[in-house]
Amino acid sequence: MMKEQDKEPPTESLFIDTLDYLEKKRREKKRKEKKRKEKKRKEKKRKEKKRKEKREEKRREEKRREEKRREEKRREEKRREEKRREEKRREEKRREEKRREEKRREEKRREEKRREEKRREEKRREEKRREEKRREEKRT
Question: What are the start and end residues of every segment in region (Disordered) (predicted)?
């Protein structure tokens, strides 16, 4: 074994080499740290992008559903409106038919009245003729 005195004092060259080595290690550590931070930052960015896309997709989906609901509402309203119009038309038709029917009945009544009047008139004439005939016969 070597004794203490046999050891050579460290040379300047060795000291410089050690400093260089330490500097290299420090730079390496710094570089790795930078790389790690960059990776972390990119990952964060990627995740944020993913979340953003997800939110955007959700928003678009909601928009589509909303549009669908509105469209359905419009169609439903259209159907109801059409039903109301149809009902109105039917109602108008019924009223019109009723009016026509009433008119026909009224016409029938008038016609019947005229006939009745004619018969009465005819009866009166007939009665008058008979009366005339009797008078004539009485004179002769």
Answer: 1-140
